[in-house]
Structure formats: C-alpha cells, structure tokens
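Practice record 12: protein with magnesium ion.
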Amino acid sequence: MPQSENRTSLKSNIAVVIVAAGRGARAGGLVDGPKQYRNIGGQPVIARTVQAFLDNDDINQIIIVTHPDDDDLIANATSTFNSDKIAITHGGATRQLSVLNGLNAIQSADYVLIHDAVRPFVTHDVINGAITELMSGSQAVLPALAVSDTLKRVDARSIITDTVPRDHLYAAQTPQGFAYAAIHNAHMHAQHAGRTDFTDDCAIAEWASIPVKIIAGSPKNIKLTTIEDINMANQSFQNAVFADVRTGNGYDVHQLVDGDHVTLCGVDIPHHKRLSGHSDADVALHALTDALLATCGAGDIGDHFPPTDPQWKGAASFIFLEKAAEIVREKGGIITNADVSLIAEQPKIGPHRDKMRASLANILNIDLERCSVKATTNEKIGFIGREEGIAAIATATVVYGVTS
Ligand code: MG
C-alpha cells in the first residue's frame, strides 16, 4: 500500500470510529438481526469492515459503537480478532449521538476516521487517501464519487418537477476523516445546540464551518443498505472463481548399455552409452508424460503406449509427451509448468540444459520460462552412481476449468 514519506515519519495518533449501532430496518430489521452482523462469504459484515482498518498499520485505535442489545453479536463477530487496538462502546438514540459516544471513548487522537460498519469493502486506497489528506493539513476529508446518474426531483405524486444539474454533485462515502479536536468540538456544539438530525459527520463539520475536502472514493466501497445488497454481496463471494490448480509427478529409469548417444528431453547427446528401452528410452520425457497424465487421472504412459505394441518400437518419445498434452488440453487443462530433474553421473547435462528446455517448450507448446530442467549426480552411489542407468523425476502443473 502506498505510504507517503510524510505519514510514515510523523507517526500520528489515528483512531477509527466504526458506527454499528443501527437497527438495519431497511435490511429486514431485527427478524434476521441487524445487517452489520449478517454473514457475507461466511464472515459477518462488520468483521470484514474491522479487518480493513486492522490491516492499516497507521491506525492505532478502533472504537466500535454498538447497540446495547447487540453485545453477544459483536462479541461473536470480533472473537477471531486478537488485537488490543479494538474497543467497543455503546451507541445513542441517533447515529449522531452514537458517533459522539465513539469520539468520547477515544483516549487521545490527532485524527479520527468515522466509518459505517455496513461498508465492508472499503479499500486501502480510500483509507490511505483520507489519512494522507489529513496529514497534509485538511481539517476534514470526505471520500466521494462524482454523481453520474441524471437526477430528478419529484413532487408528492411522484411527478418530476425538475432535473437537477449534476455538475459539482458528489455521493458521499465513509470513512470521513477529521482532525480529532475539531470534529469532537463540532459534535459537542451540535448536541448543545439541540441539533441531532445530521446524517453524516461532514454535515456537522460544514455546520461548524470546517472546510471539508473531497477526495476520490471507490465504486467498490458500497453501503449495504437493503436485504438485496446483503444477498448480492454474499453471492459475489459464492461466485468467486478459484483456479483448479493440479500437480502431477512422474518417475522413470532406464538402463545404460553400450552405444553412441543418449536422448534426454528430446535432445541427442553424444555419449559412449545409450539408454536401453522399447522406444528411444528418453527417461525425462517419460517421467514428464506420466506427470501430465497424473493431473487428470488419465493413467500412465504404459496405458497409452504399451511397450508390447510394436508400433512404439524405437519411437521418438516426444510423441508420448505430445499425446499427454493433447489429453490434458481436451480435458480443459492449461499447462503452466513442466519441471524435470535428471539423475545421472554421465553425460554432463549442464551444457545441454537450455536446448532441453527449448525442446520441452516446443513439444508442449508453452513458454520457455514455464519449462525447467535440472540435473544432479547420484554421488557415485548405487546403480546410477555406477553409471548403469539414468533416472528422471518430473512435476507438471496444470490449471483446469478456465478458458484461456
Ligand atoms: Mg520409460
């Protein structure tokens, strides 16, 4: 997240008041509980809201203002947070009085952000934008979006009386940010003046002649007002696409016998021995073929190319790997990585590695950077150490169920 030099060096004392005392009449009222405690994506709305502010290291106090009837609900919703930044206080009869209770509960603060609990999708950019604006000297800051809909005023019979010019009109969001002393004073003056009808805190700042600076809000920072809003927010989590990433592994070994070259990853390497097998005995491509088939439960190389079948005698093994890639793609897979480890004393693999990677990329028709070839000796131990054979281990990563 962007942090200005100014902010990180100032280490100011920033508090947040999250207003959660509403009864949520428009979202089904008390039948299913207030909307800030409803679950969206398996988590209470208010828990998501609190998390957004906990994630911001500049904030050192979070006051949640709740209804006295909701003590169990808020205790449950915040039970997973283990943070001494969080404190809970009860609200008053109106939103305005609830905010004042929240401001009174703050021990000390240079700045305060006041946020509606039912805006759980507030972005880090909006929070940081408000903090940055306060740090640069503004007494009050309001994230807002320019109004894009055409606005109509109607009479009591729902007949349009006029079209309201939308120039210079903004839709207000939260968190609204303030110099703490300024907004606390304004709230107390409003209460003493008998004004309890302000619907947001910037309105109180305006009433107290505190200039309020508009900054960019976010279209994501929606207010969950109705039961439809809650259901849509919940649905958006259920529709989230989780990539179906699968990995498969494969292993192969072939014996070395007298000869003049070995074929590894489809590359011929001069050597005084050759790998013995029904096909060209390319252990690397055989292991990788098995790894690919394993990502979609398609058996192994022997199922598709039986060594008893004379048509595969002396076959170039890229045919097997091409076939495995074709099977994977027919099942909707996208090959995202092919990784081969060769275990051999001789010949040296290093000088041929790039050519082998290019060969894999070519056979699989994927980017070079998605192909890896590594090699190790067996420290002269066992049959590989005695140069009686070469082994290969392969891992394939395939993403299924997305259209490329
Ligand atoms: Mg084999």
